[in-house]
Amino acid sequence: MKCKKKSKVFLIPYPAQGHVTPMLKLASLLVNHGINPIVIIPNFIKIDSKDVNISIMSISDGLDQDGLTTSSGRDFFAIEKSMENYMPCQLENIIRDQQEDGIVCLIVDLLASWAIEIANKCGVHVAGFWPAMLATYKLINSIPEMLHDGIISETGSPLHNDPICNLFGQPTIRPQDLPWLIGNPNARISRFKFWTRTMERTKTLKWLLINTFQEECHNNKDQNTTNFSTQILPIGPLNTHVTIKNSSFWEEDLSCMNWLDKQVVNSVLYISFGSWVSPIGEAKVNSLALALEATKRPFIWVLGPLWRQGLQKGYLERISKQGKIVSWAPQMDVLQHEGVGCYLTHCGWNSTMEAIQSKKRLMCYPIAGDQFVNCFYIVKKWRIGVRIDGFGVKDLEGGLRKVMEDDGMSGRIDRLNEMTMGKVASCKAMDNLTTFLSSVRM
């Protein structure tokens, strides 16, 4: 009897835009290797498989049935509860039903680490996926060392105000910028527990695919990259290898492209904080709005309808000729437009890589999570942007002046673009993906 060749790979992203998009791109790459990728997402995420040409399997997150949805919707803690208590049994049933058809492995976003345990329970190979820099992974993976050295408490709170230098040399961040320090004290403790549990589960992983470039991993290489025998394989940045159209959770406003066509080359400031606009707060949104108006520079600002309600009365009418405010933008199209000269960003990893791909200068305002580490690299190491600490007129004008008048920045962006996305870098990333698939199929 002929043995059936395994071809299916299940991909389990964390259910957020910045995680689902790179996972869809990875799935698209797997198709080129003769793999049948199936991306499993909660049913509150609406992505049509026809739009992305990838098989999508929706499962219930159980929030509506079990009353777990909070007043703010499916927030981090509601989703975490669903992932830990509701989704595992559904995934196990899917794996059991599909095992006879030949499952190569599961690829699991580390923030969805609950799925690692299910794969192990079902006896299926499992690889981790980290959608950001190796540097941020190493920072979080060094929690045991930070506890041992008295840098943080048992609940993750900083025990001193000195800058924290990653135990492996870089980057240096402020204690208040640790990735789990978001929200009130109880929220911070819960997020710290989430990360410690996540890193404990990753100890069983044989492979970790990272959405970063070879050179970043080479510069961060040392014997303590992990505490175990996990093989680190940089396969990114994925945005350079494949483009997934219509993977956004929200409808894109294409009218901004016609508006851009009428603007002077390199004159427009593009502003987007991704899905992280809510922690900025209404006061800062208003401050930024007035500062943008005062600069008299043309701008495109991604700002949802809810946050627009807090703007000054008459503001939208006043800036109608100067700027364009949209609920969601086709970001890569905007960044690659010659009219855009600078990007004011929260420093999310996907946005950072898209800016480098589009060769745009950056003004940085990190808010949470890995964004502070990314900002360190943008401003201090790569020197392709500047950081601003507020949204006053002086903050904005000063940041714009620094970033636009730096004559050497264009050259540095070009070199970084080649290092991350040139032919050599792309070949190395694809070689790593091929190595992984060869290993997992053995």
TrEMBL record:
<dbReference type="InterPro" id="IPR035595">
    <property type="entry name" value="UDP_glycos_trans_CS"/>
</dbReference>
<dbReference type="Pfam" id="PF00201">
    <property type="entry name" value="UDPGT"/>
</dbReference>
<comment type="similarity">
    <text>Belongs to the UDP-glycosyltransferase family.</text>
</comment>
<protein>
    <recommendedName>
        <fullName>Glycosyltransferase</fullName>
        <ecNumber>2.4.1.-</ecNumber>
    </recommendedName>
</protein>
<dbReference type="InterPro" id="IPR002213">
    <property type="entry name" value="UDP_glucos_trans"/>
</dbReference>
<keyword id="KW-0328">Glycosyltransferase</keyword>
<keyword id="KW-0808">Transferase</keyword>
